[in-house]
Amino acid sequence: MSINLSLLPPGEKNKIELDKQASFLIWKLREAKATPDEIDQQATKILDEQEKAWFLQSVEKYKRVMGVA
């Protein structure tokens, strides 16, 4: 079954984008191409509190998955 992401409502698209950003930041952190400060900087740019919570939850998920402390 395939899902066309472009057909999702804007809120769902944004959640996917925030999840991708979190994944990429943790990968950069694991590869020593970023610092933990970059995660904080990205989080402060997110104005909506629910979106910020989603982003930080994704950060924690990818830290566990990628074994980053």
UniProtKB/TrEMBL annotation:
GO biological process: DNA replication
Gene3D superfamilies: DNA polymerase III-theta (1.20.58.250)
Gene Ontology MF annotations: DNA binding; DNA-directed DNA polymerase activity
Domain of life: Bacteria
Short name of any one Pfam family annotated for the protein: DUF3283
UniProt-listed InterPro entries: DUF3283 (IPR021700), PolIII_theta_sf (IPR036745)
Protein name in UniProt: DUF3283 family protein
Biological source species: Vibrio sinensis
